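In practice, a research group might receive sequence data for several interacting partners and want a quick structural hypothesis before committing to experiments. The following worked case mirrors that situation: the sequences arrive first, and a predicted assembly follows.
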Amino acid sequence: MTAVADLMDYAEVIERFDPVLGLEVHTELNTKTKMFCSTPNVFGGEPNTHVCPTCLGLPGALPVLNGKAVESAIRIGLALNCEIAEWCRFARKNYFYPDMPKNFQTSQYDEPIAFNGYLDVTLDDGEVVRVEIERAHMEEDTGKSLHVGGATGRIHGADYSLLDYNRAGVPLIEIVTKPIVGTGDRAPMVARAYVNTLRDLLRALDVSDVRMDQGSLRCDANVSLMEKGAAQFGTRTETKNVNSLRSVERAVRYEMTRQAAVLAGGGTVIQETRHFQEADGTTSSGRIKETAEDYRYFPEPDLVPIAPSREWVEQLRTTLPEKPADRRKRIQTEWDLTAEELRDLFNAGAVELVEATVEAGAKPDEARGWWVNFLAQEANSREVELAELPITPAQVARVTVLVASGELTNKLAREVVKGVLAGEGEPDEVVEKRGLKVVSDDSALLAAVDEALAAQPDIADKIRGGKVQAAGAIVGAVMKATKGQADAKRVRELIIERVGA
Amino acid sequence: MSELTRFTAAELAEKIHGREVSSVEVTQAHLDRIGQVDDFVHAFLHVDADGALAAAKAVDDAIGEGAAPASPLAGVPLALKDVLTTKDSPTTCGSKTLEGWIPPYDATVTRRLREAGLPILGKTNMDEFAMGSSTENSAYGPTHNPWDHARIPGGSGGGSSASITAFEAPLAIGTDTGGSIRQPGAVTGTVGVKPTYGGVSRYGLVAFSSSLDQAGPCARTVLDAALLHEVIAGHDPMDSTSIDAPVPPVVAAAREGRRGDLKGVKVGVVTELSGDGYQGGVLRSFEGAVAQLRELGAEVVEVSCPHFVYALPAYYLIAPSEASSNLARFDAMRYGLRVADDGAHSADEVMALTREAGFGPEVKRRIMLGTYALSSGYYDAYYGSAQKVRTLITRDFDAAFEKVDVLVSPTTPTTAFKIGERVDDPMAMYLSDICSIPSNLAGNAAMSVPSGLSDEDGLPVGLQIMAPALADDRLYRVGAAYELARGEILDRLPELKGVSA
Amino acid sequence: MPNISRAEVAHLAKLAHLAVTDEELDVFAGQLDQILDSVAKVGEVAGEDIPPTSHAVPLTNVFREDVTQPGLTQQQALSGAPAAEEGRFRVPRILGEEQ
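A structural hypothesis for the assembly, expressed as tokens:
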């Protein structure tokens, strides 16, 4: 293991340096087929079962571009306020690597389909930062390798590797920012907020699953520091493998403190790829970028140029979702949220779910409460995305309706939701099966109240004597007797009625 | 030799469809001929007797049941260049690196041949990955010219042309990147056509230079070539560069040409494709052919294509550049040869050692040349400039075709040279394609049709006819008219040595 | 004019993943020199105003519908593999990292 890197105190870093960020986000499109062949584009699967001669790079096989992928690329470009190329091509990026079947990647190079855009990003404190977009271009994903032998499947020390090309040829859009400058101590926050906003946007466009944990959204963070007052950017590092929003923020922050320590110690930052370690939040040195790297790009002769008509582009523009900043504003107003509530809502990735739940009949604050609090915790403990929980917005909405009508208490409602999550069926079925209905029949309740009062005559006397708060003990007894299925408020009313009448 | 091997494909088809003879008999006659002469000619790398006879029987059965023939050539066997993939039968491209490789899929050309009922006799010899003009670069030994065993049959498709010259097959498929159909046709006294680029699908054609490669027919007569052309041509959604337009009416044009009248046809003689470096007998044969075109009623004028002199240098930048990328996939990971996999060598080392062991010198030379031409720093001067020359050559063709209907030149500057004569002199070898390359760069259609035998060495000479893109039918009209006026050539083919009667 | 050195040829061989022999380095250096000398002629006419041609046919916008088609089975995919294990291609250990 390498020695632990020296780190500079963050406040000092900010005092002495200006950070410069560059973010490269790769997103896998959710098209039905791969970029250049009709093979299904699905996550996982038995190895080498989603392959064909083209994505396996067999001799003689040829690529044919997925029109839907081009459409998605243009929509992403438009949503990022980019210009859309009148004419552009694919190129071949030539380098050898076993997980790349042709030993070249078919990728756009100097003629991206979308370029010169921006994305307005709202920070936690409500300030809006405009991130300039350099380009968004189309390319293809690689296969996956499994390293066997040596220590724990790591590439180093492995005896051999096993290759699965199911992912090879999956359509990717790479979105590259221009250098992000002037963000000071908020650089890590800006990085995170950018990726988060971009993720929401891609989700709203319905072009990608945007699952960072499955790699359908991946971020590489370029970080460099320049001394205060310097005119030129410093040497940057590119941190890969940053696969959660929190990691984006941590990785940028770590690189800032690491690079600052290197520079302060009179050293130079090496231009290299670094890998983020989820476990301890550090980055470690990867491959040193040789200057000799020479990808020998040239226009892909097997694919013809793309010349999207302006009519097509304008038609696609009409399919765009609301801009993220506008959407935030609208949601805040419509649902009457504080800045903090709005932030939690977005950070939980719950906006669409809450919207759908409201649409299905829930009140906004109730819908939000379920998703941002109870269900977010459930998702967290199950280590899945919120949207992946086995419960639908309609089901959550039904639960809120049952609570509003008094058929369920909040406590019972949680039981019902747990039942739904456990696969016990629709909320009403869970209520039925688990027998969770509020006991709303007054005669049944009165019997329980009378019983409880008879059992504790001294407390009955206290209440009669005006100590209404003493009723709590009776309420507790009744709730216990009804196994929590009574409405506590109604029980209290009945007690007062019984004793005081 | 069985009479059945002497007929043209058109005659055989007529006999088979008229149930005068069966496809099985015809196929068996050619298999027998292969058995008799191929040790001497070495046109085939693999003979698939069982597959061919099974396909022949299927045609006979269908005809016997009264069904209409699947195509005008149904039942006529053919030889396929070993650069087109054949499911369940080896495809080596003349390379050690693909020795024994059995593709899991058929090329589109292969599929169309099967669907049209043409039994595939076997796979023909070629320069490794179609790089060469003599078939000497085959890893499996050279093919011999049936006219003179000591001489080359041209290349890269020497096996295909030699197989029809030696009456081992009535038809063959070749591929033409810089002249690999036409130059072997010229030096073996047979017809070879490079269709318009995009006219015949490249799906399953193992790529040498993607923007230049084109499959086409090899035959002993112009009409036979036309019949085969119509079987293999037409739009293919699996090839992005395939032209979505009706196939030019080449069979009708060939029949029209056989009426022997070229009145109203304007023929341009390309000034730049003659002079120094052209063998006297070739030039005299060419002049004789031009005189005959005049006699047939054509108007003949001189046309200058000033940039054709830059075609050869442009070709030797573009083709190797694309090849360096296309051949990167032969890396010992997924298919083909693998050496040095002893646990000690890394994947990178095994790739490099396998490629070193699996590729012959010409392939390595071109990969290095292409790698150089695409390198940063050299791209503009080499690859970029070559692509500009391509524009200039296309403009030369456009200007010429405003004045004339077809252009003519010798197909290649010399008759067949001796095996071994040019192997150590790549530049001399490259000159073989000086006349054929312009049409590959511009993508237009071109044919070589025999213009008799050279008066100095008695070896065949080819007349090249060039037509605008998508006007392939003009080649056939002019070619068929000329062929008829010229008279028979192959009856002067010497009896193959070492062949028992 | 290019004067390609042995070292340059070695670098090209490295880029192209060809484990060439010392002897080949010499042969290729000479031959590439000769070829490059000859093909450099393209520069004579490649003016600024000439657009490059990358494709022989002037086609644009050739797209495929986003509809799945059956591909290869795992067995077909692995049929040509020099080595396979657990449904995957088995390859020697990979040293470098993905780019």
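Before designing any experiment, note the following. Chain A has 16 helices and 15 strands. Chain A touches chain B through 31 residues (CB under 8 Å).
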